[in-house]
Design brief:
This protein is an alpha/beta fold. Helix content is 37%, strand content 24%. A seven-stranded mixed sheet has the order 17-18-19-14-13-21-22, sandwiched between helices. Strands 10-9-8-11-12-24 form a six-stranded mixed sheet, sandwiched between helices. A three-stranded mixed sheet has the order 1-5-4, covered by helices on one side. α1 (37-55) crosses α7, α4 runs parallel beside α5 (149-163) and α7 packs across α8.
Length: 470
């Protein structure tokens, strides 16, 4: 399979290409054209021409186009999910979730934009009638990562299409097949020419071409903190908005009064879902000393019940890591000097084809070790004991990141203290819970701006204040 870039309603080849691998087998399954700087510029210029046309459509006209896209996506679900499984190594259920989040985002935002109301502002001497109005900002440029190709696309394409913006997205060259099939369906719908563009390519080429251009008004990204900094670094030529969802280092705090079975099921389930390649996955699990041994026993038992993707059995499936380099990094994380703890289970690459790491639990991990300071992005769960003498909220905050944090406790006082003291954009208590209507975004080096919820729409509109003399 040869995959081309979708630019200005055309399919473009390139002088260079890159192999796409199935992480479950390690086999090459496709080649993707790598966009040049000129391809990105052409996409941006086409989007600029389209922005005034698409932005002039009414909400109902945009809804008609988006509803058509949703219908085509649903009709192609089985095919697209199969592409996701092949290019990411996901389990079937997580690939289906990835696909359906794209569909749900498109549907959510085209309804939410109907409630993007204006506002009147009282005048102090009643001499003017003041109100706010909104219009689409124009061109959005987005950089998307590989771990959830279609969910990530939905988070950005949904508000862009609903608000009336044209867009250019960098699709990960590791996982281009499902997204480019979506591009084919977009092309069939009949959006105004140049409304949406998908390019694959090296970040060293595509990101500077997007960021240095005067055309995009909003630069948005789901990716690493390092990549987000590069995006900002390349953007001094013009004033732009940024919406960045970047790295995470999620702490989990398990207190003595927690429902331990529920906590273990949540924490291990999220840690091993998608092979731990989730920005909000638990990265540092702090467990009170009084329940520490029981937690380790229960968590180990659950982790050891997992089976590798495609193996027979009844246990939950563990998918592979995305690349061979990711697997090598995870194996390196398991070296004693990286964590200072004791490996209870796992710790090695699985003896099988593909990029599988054994589900790994490491107890008594040293505070401040490298494993607790970096985003792991793999199926490794560091567990750290704490006592009443510890300022556990300070320990949780001891990271450059601030995306998600989790607490398990029956104490409302402790929950309210967590709300005030934890420096994270998402604080989840007694359950892992994410939903489209709830804002998602980080603090500190985890970025700024929000994905999903009505708040995300704000980035895609310019706000005008109008005052009329009475």
């Amino acid at each position: 399979m040869n995959i081309r870039n979708y630019v200005a309603n055309q399919w473009l080849d390139s002088e260079s290409s890159s192999a796409v691998f199935n992480p479950a087998t390690g086999e090459s399954i496709a080649r993707v054209a790598m966009a040049s700087e000129g391809d990105v510029t052409r996409a941006l210029e086409s989007a600029e021409a389209a922005a005034s046309v698409y932005g002039a459509l009414t909400i109902n006209q945009r809804k008609s186009l988006i509803d058509c896209l949703i219908a085509k996506l649903k009709a192609a679900e089985e095919e697209i999910v199969a592409l996701l499984v092949a290019e990411t190594g996901k389990t079937q259920d997580i690939a289906s979730y990835d696909f359906n989040m794209l569909v749900d985002c498109l549907g959510y935002y085209v309804e939410e934009v109907k409630r993007h109301y204006g506002e009147t502002i009282p005048d102090y001497d009643d001499g003017h009638f003041n109100f706010l109005s909104f219009q689409p900002i124009g061109v959005v440029a987005g950089v998307l990562t590989w771990n959830f190709p279609l969910l990530n696309l939905g988070y950005k394409l949904g508000p862009a299409l609903a608000s009336g913006c044209a867009s250019v997205f960098k699709i990960s060259e590791r996982t281009p097949m499902s997204s480019m099939r979506v591009a084919e369906l977009i092309d069939e719908v009949g959006f105004p020419d140049g409304t949406v563009h998908f390019v694959c390519g090296s970040g060293r080429v595509v990101i500077p071409a997007m960021a240095q251009s005067r055309i995009p008004r909003l630069l948005t990204m789901i990716g690493s903190t390092l990549a987000g900094k590069k995006l900002i670094e390349h953007s001094p030529s013009s004033v732009k908005r940024f919406s960045l969802e970047l790295g995470g280092d999620a702490p989990v705090l398990v207190f003595p009064d927690a429902d331990l079975d529920a906590a273990v099921a949540d924490i291990v389930g999220l840690k091993l879902a998608n092979a731990g390649q989730i920005c909000v996955a638990p990265n540092r699990v702090f467990v009170h000393q009084s329940i520490y041994d029981v937690f380790i026993e229960k968590a180990t038992s659950l982790m050891e019940s997992y089976r590798y993707l495609g193996d027979p059995g009844d246990g939950p499936e563990l998918s592979p890591l995305c690349t061979e380099a990711s697997l090598e990094q995870m194996v390196a994380f398991c070296r004693p000097e990286m964590h200072g703890g004791t490996i209870v289970t796992g710790g090695q690459a699985a003896d099988r084809p593909g990029y599988f790491l054994q589900p790994t639990l490491i107890k008594d991990v040293a505070r401040g070790s490298k494993l607790t300071c970096e985003e792991i992005f793999g199926p490794i769960m560091p567990v750290i004991p704490f006592t009443d003498a510890d300022d556990i909220f300070a320990l949780a905050n001891d990271t450059q990141y601030g995306l998600s944090a989790y607490l398990y406790t029956e104490s409302i006082r402790r929950a309210m203290e967590a709300e005030k003291r934890l420096l994270f954009g998402n604080i989840l208590i007694n359950e892992v819970y994410y939903s489209l209507q709830l804002p998602h975004g980080g603090l500190k080096q985890s970025g700024f701006g929000k994905d999903v919820s009505r708040l995300a729409l704000e980035d895609y509109f310019d706000t005008k204040r109008i005052s009329i003399k009475r």
